[in-house]
Write a structure and sequence with these properties.
The complex is a heterotetramer, with one copy of chain A, one copy of chain B and two copies of chain C. Chain A is of the alpha+beta class. Chain A has 27 helices and 28 strands. Chain A has three domains: 250 residues, Phosphoribosyl-aminoimidazole Synthetase, Chain A, domain 2, CATH 3.90.650.10; 237 residues, PurM-like, N-terminal domain (60s Ribosomal Protein L30, Chain: A, 2-Layer Sandwich), CATH 3.30.1330; 207 residues, PurM-like C-terminal domain (Phosphoribosyl-aminoimidazole Synthetase, Chain A, domain 2, Alpha-Beta Complex), CATH 3.90.650. Chain A has a seven-stranded mixed sheet with strand order 8-10-7-11-9-12-13. In chain A, strand 4, helix 9 and strand 5 form a beta-alpha-beta unit. In chain B, the strands form two sheets. A nine-stranded mixed sheet of chain B has the order 2-1-3-4-11-10-9-6-7, sandwiched between helices. In chain B, strands 5-8 form a two-stranded antiparallel sheet. Chain B starts with a strand and ends in a 9-residue tail after the last helix. Chain B has one domain: Class I glutamine amidotransferase (GATase) domain (Rossmann fold, 3-Layer(aba) Sandwich). The chains are: A alpha+beta, B alpha/beta, C alpha+beta. Bound molecules: adenosine-5'-diphosphate (ADP) and magnesium ion. The site of adenosine-5'-diphosphate has 14 residues of chain A, from strand 17 and strand 18.
């Protein structure tokens, strides 16, 4: 038997030593908690504050910089924003009464410890965020970053992560419509698993995480609560005077996608029946988070009988129940006269639902355990008034050295060195970051729901929202962290540019942004400076583009020893399209179509894929950011798609024109014959730079002969430069770069597909 | 013409199957796993997905759903029944179709477009195809390897009950490259690939899947398989 | 609380891709004695109180009807667990140093 | 030919959705004695000749390193199979009437 640390007991025993440091609290934070509660906290209160005030839940290091989002959001940007930053996910209006919600989240560390379950529960968590807005989840994406392809740990982590993303998402019946797979030594020991989910709903169905209505029921429903994810807080067990010693608590959460699928359908039935007054998913910090956030956002008070929580493991102690991160659970606020209907629906889906307590207006979150009060705190102090740090920032001095070490001295093939250019193409094409990712993406169901108009390997995921009109959304996630390493401000804006361009090239008008900011330790002034630069860059970039940031996620401490990952501010852009069936797609299809390069090419090779793959080099300045050019280009792409001008359209990014051409040939096995003459002439660059420079705001398009004129007019009207490259070839033909080199389809294919299959097959 | 689509907990492609039925011109009727009636449908589709999470074995738990007793009765009586992917697995677990589906030989979930040869056009689900016609259909599963003992395989081959065979490379190690089979009478057909994902231009790899649904509508119109209307 | 263990294996003539994959990986890790691997399932069923003959009969029936598919699998064993009270751990220690 | 049987189960504190799904299905089939189900893996490893101590040591090592994931699973048993010659069937018949 053990003694229960009640509020009354805590008041009588002010001097008990408490393990605040082991729980990750600082001494002033602990003192602050004592002040808030007016005595020493109970064990359960301490547990709640410690998880809710952690970096992960409280954003204590990043919060001060988030003012930049608001400062850079104009009224015009707010127009389409139905729900902004601060809720579980932002919601945007896409017209015709439809709203979409989307958000990205990281599950980096858990995926390193247990790749399958870590990645699986990452998907599960972000899907619940989307569900909690009242939406039906309609697609997922995953952005993955690993260490060196040849490192044995990559062979341990990658297959598990991919199987986990697939295992969970496939079983939920959500099409996976895109993402990234990136290899870079900087992620060795700190792989990144960022998952994104998008959901759709009618505007009037938006739900919020608010506990309103005094006397309303607080209902926990879904899976039973186990000891998942609380391994780290086993320190508490020693504080509870337990005689048998702490039971074993797993540090990893295990997901049950089937339970989540049922929960999705159950929630949608509940929403349709209008029996939910407020709803919150249970994710990080479990019940601590759900109860305090709901109460804090609503009437301000709540009373919970914690002993009513259905348990999978009866040995769990109250503080453990409060912190458990067991998956597949939701919390709803239900009006008393709706409860019966609510429970009838959960019963239909065989989902366990339990009334835990009620909404109050006392301004206190009160938790009891078999009638005794173990928590009595102001919920805002737990959920929203955690500590805030102004961490020191400093631009690292090594950046000067890095900037100076540019690519001018690296050996480049000359204009007449066809063999050298050809070799460079095939080498870059086979490099792990450009190589075909189908070994990964074939493990994801992209067809389920029947609304996928575009997915891997095209530039963006495109899904239909309204079956009858064809209205839909496009989504892309991007970040080239090499550019961020060279310049975090420009790098973040380049990530934004690329995601924006990928959405536009699929024919959709960019509308809103989410992000997932992956960085090293916030206690390192260099990391913190890069973080600030990235947030500022995204906020200012979004303002320029006129598309708001609707939400996101921060992941710090992605570092080994004092070596941090490259700044990796993942950017997700969402666009809207009136008729998704008009999307052009990224590959050559029709022989004889004319191929054009839109946009300006400069001799920009620093940080490029060529410099990485052929020279193992990283230094210099990233390509020039030109958001105005991106906007003009997007206008051409959106209007051109609507008028069905394009046969295909594919954006240029890593590997430049050379890789865009090769990918467009490989997409459907239809070749092309091009000449670099116009490009080199107009832009005054070498054949090599024409092929491998990574200048932004460029896309490759093909048009039928009778569409050349409309294209030229569109480009002229929007001041988008165009250069004629050549024509689409026969099915089965390869790539011909006149006066330079030729590669047949088989050789292109072999170079492209071999790398990942060789590394992971068998 | 009423075609029922059963939803089990964990069914995923039920809404797609309903859409396919509708687009091809029949009335789609949602059937619930706990129903003990088939609501007067003329044919039944068991859709793809992960019924009961695919835990234990794919289809093993769904097979004991109350609605399956009605489906089994109806199938035995001659009603056209189509099992797609998880539905195929359920039909095998119910012993309405011979054999079983096991983990793909490469052990990975695989979402690819496959070519199939239609080898039997005498079933109500394939009569609109040409014999030996090659069609392209989406395949997506982790446990799609068709296995059966040699005697069963010989029987299926001899009786022409291999309805679909993978053309080109075998994507999952299925014995005899079998993608789909029928029961003896031909009214019950199961296959791993997903015709319901191949009915709309621009969504899915082809529109070859329409043939499944137009076939059964034609068969029902012609009076085939109406013997046991429930 | 009693426990019943049910072991199910794929029939010998059925392809076992998982077992094969394990077998292929073993030599790479330096395990060269093992020539073949088959992977099956092990179920641990808990019943209230001691395991009775009746419980075992029910378990056998469940093993045949639900836990295995006779087309591809054999139920190779249904038995009460040796030491029923403390569960998995006791079984581990009862056998020869599993966690070598 | 000798055989070694390796049993691997999820750690008791780890959620077992598979076992749970089976447990929920049992009452519907009329099996009401069984209160909980956990599902694990059973590997049968074949070695040339009789099973030696050395083989067992290798199997134990393989069980820890390859056949189980120590983050979520326990190796609950590694043992030579009772009657080594005829394999699965012999074990079945050695236990109480599996194919009732
Ligand atoms: N990098 C970011 N950019 C913009 N908004 C962010 C960012 N990180 C977090 N947010 C927002 O802050 C709020 C709290 O984040 P979080 O705790 O992750 O939400 P949740 O509780 O739903 O997991 C959310 O609205 C989220 O969108
Ligand atoms: Mg949330």
């Amino acid at each position: 038997m053990s003694t229960l640390d009640t509020v009354a007991h805590a008041a009588q025993t002010p001097d008990v030593e408490q393990p605040w440091a082991e729980l990750g609290l600082k001494s002033d934070e602990y003192a602050n908690i004592r002040e808030i509660v007016g005595r020493r906290p109970t064990i359960a209160e301490l547990a709640m504050y410690s998880v809710m005030w952690s970096e992960h839940c409280s954003y204590k290091s990043s919060k001060v910089h988030f003012a930049l989002w608001g400062e850079n959001t104009t009224d015009q940007m707010r127009e389409k924003l139905l729900v902004g930053i601060g809720e579980n996910a932002g919601v945007v209006d896409i017209g015709d009464g439809w709203a979409v919600t989307f958000k990205a989240e990281s599950h980096n560390h858990p995926s390193y410890v247990e790749p399958y379950q870590g990645a699986a529960t990452g998907v599960g968590g972000i899907v619940r965020d989307i569900m909690s807005m009242g939406a039906r989840p309609i697609a997922v994406m995953d952005s993955l970053r690993f260490g060196n392809l040849d490192h044995p740990d990559t062979a341990r982590v990658l297959p598990g992560v991919v199987a986990g993303v697939g295992g969970y998402g496939n079983c939920l019946g959500l099409p996976n419509v895109g993402g990234e797979v990136v290899f870079d030594d900087c992620y060795q020991g700190n792989p990144l698993v960022n998952a994104l989910c998008v959901g759709a709903m009618r505007v009037e169905d938006i739900h919020l995480a608010k506990a309103t209505g005094v006397g309303n029921h607080v209902v926990l429903f879904g899976a039973k609560t186990g000891g998942d994810g609380i391994g780290g807080v086993s320190v508490l067990a020693s504080e509870t005077f337990d005689e048998g010693g702490p039971a074993k608590r797993p540090a990893v959460q295990v997901g049950d996608p089937f339970a989540e699928k049922v929960l999705i359908e159950c929630c949608l039935d509940l929403y349709a029946a209008r029996v939910v007054a407020g709803i919150q998913d249970l994710g990080g910090a479990g019940l601590s988070c759900a109860t305090s956030e709901l109460a804090s956002n609503g009437e301000g008070g709540m009373r919970i009988e914690l002993d009513k929580v259905p348990l999978r493991d009866p040995s769990l102690r109250p503080e453990e129940i409060l912190m458990s991160e067991s998956q597949e659970r939701m919390m709803a606020i239900v009006e008393p006269h709706r409860l019966e209907e609510f429970l009838a629906i959960t019963t239909k889906w065989d989902v366990e639902a339990t009334v835990l307590g009620e909404v109050t207006d006392t301004g206190r979150l009160v938790v009891t355990w078999h009638g005794e009060v173990i928590v009595d705190v102001p919920p805002r102090s737990v959920a929203h008034e955690g500590p805030t740090y102004h961490r020191p920032l400093a631009r690292p001095t090594y950046l000067d050295v890095l900037t100076a070490d540019d690519t001018t001295d690296l050996a480049r093939p000359g204009d007449h060195d066809g063999a050298g250019l050809r070799h460079a193409l095939l080498t870059v094409l086979a490099g792990p970051n450009i190589a075909d990712k189908s070994w990964v993406t074939d493990q994801y169901d992209r067809y389920v729901m029947g609304n996928t108009a575009m997915a891997q390997p095209d530039d963006a995921g495109v899904v239909r929202v309204d079956e009858f009109t064809g209205l839909g959304v496009a989504l892309a996630t991007d970040c080239n962290s090499r550019f961020c390493a060279l310049d975090p401000y420009d790098g973040a804006q380049l990530a934004l540019s690329e995601a924006y361009r990928n959405v536009a090239v699929s024919g959709a008008r960019p509308l809103a942004v989410t992000d997932c900011l992956n960085f090293g330790s916030p206690e390192d002034p260099g990391v913190m400076w890069a973080f600030r630069e990235s947030v500022r860059a995204l906020a200012e970039g979004c303002k320029f583009l006129g598309i708001p940031v609707t939400g996101g996620n921060v992941s710090f401490y992605n570092q080994t020893g004092d070596v941090a990952i490259h700044p990796t501010p993942l950017v997700g852009v969402l666009g809207v399209m009136q008729d998704v069936s008009k999307r052009p797609g990224s590959g050559f299809r029709t022989e004889g179509e004319h191929i054009y390069l839109l946009g300006a090419t400069r001799d920009e090779l620093d940080g490029s894929e060529w410099s990485r793959v052929l020279h193992g080099h990283l230094g210099g300045r990233p390509p020039q950011v030109d958001l105005a050019a991106e906007m003009r280009l997007a206008e051409v792409l959106v209007q051109g798609t609507d008028k069905r001008v394009f046969g295909m359209a594919h954006d240029l990014s890593q590997g430049g024109l050379a890789i865009a051409l090769a990918e467009s040939v490989l997409r459907h096995g239809v070749g092309a014959a091009v000449s670099l003459r116009e490009v080199t002439h107009i832009w005054g660059v070498s054949a090599f730079a024409a092929l491998f420079a990574e200048s932004t705001a460029r896309v490759l398009v093909s048009v039928r002969e009778d569409h050349e004129r409309p294209l030229a007019q569109l480009c002229a009207a929007n001041s988008v430069p165009m250069a004629h490259l050549g024509t689409v070839g026969r099915p089965g033909s390869g790539l011909v770069v006149q006066d330079c080199f030729e590669v047949d389809l088989d050789e292109l294919q072999a170079a492209h597909t071999h790398t990942l299959r060789a590394a992971f097959a068998g | 013409m009423r075609i029922g689509v059963v939803t089990f907990p964990g069914s995923l492609d039920d809404r797609d199957a309903i859409r396919a039925v509708r687009l091809c011109g029949a009335e789609a009727v949602s059937l619930w796993h706990a129903d003990d009636t088939l609501h007067d449908v003329d044919a039944v589709i068991l859709p793809g997905g992960f019924s009961y999470g695919d835990y234990l074995r794919c289809g093993a738990i769904a097979r004991f759903a109350p609605v399956m007793d009605r489906v089994i009765d109806a199938a035995t009586g001659g009603m056209p029944v189509l099992g797609i992917c998880n539905g195929f697995q359920i039909l095998c677990e119910s012993h309405l179709l011979p054999g079983a589906l096991i983990r793909n030989d490469h052990r990975l979930f695989n979402c690819i477009d496959v070519r199939l040869v239609v080898e039997n056009t005498a079933t109500p689900w394939t009569r609109d195809f040409g014999r030996w016609q090659e069609i392209t259909i989406a395949l997506k599963n982790g446990e799609g390897g068709y296995v059966a003992d040699q005697r069963t395989l010989d029987m299926l081959e001899a009786e022409g009950r291999v309805v679909f065979r993978y053309a080109g490379s075998n994507p999952n190690g299925s014995y005899n490259a079998i993608a789909g089979v029928s029961n003896e009478r031909g009214n019950v057909v199961g296959l791993m690939p997903h015709p319901e994902h191949c009915v709309e231009e621009g969504f899915g790899p082809s529109t070859d899947g329409r043939g499944f649904f137009t076939s059964v509508i034609a068969a029902l119109a012609a009076g085939t398989g109406l013997e046991v209307r429930q | 609380m009693g426990r019943i263990v049910v072991d199910v294996m794929l029939k010998p003539e059925i392809l076992d891709p998982q077992g094969q994959a394990v077998a292929r990986a073993l030599p790479r890790l330096g395990f060269d004695h093992i020539t073949e691997v088959r992977q099956g399932k092990r179920f641990v069923l808990t019943v209230d109180g001691e395991v009775t003959e009746d419980d075992l009969a029910q378990a056998r029936d469940a093993a045949e009807r639900l836990l295995s598919n006779p087309v591809i699998e054999d139920v190779v064993s249904v038995r009460a667990e040796a030491s029923a009270t403390t569960g998995a751990t006791s079984e581990a220690s009862a056998t020869s140093g599993a966690s070598a």
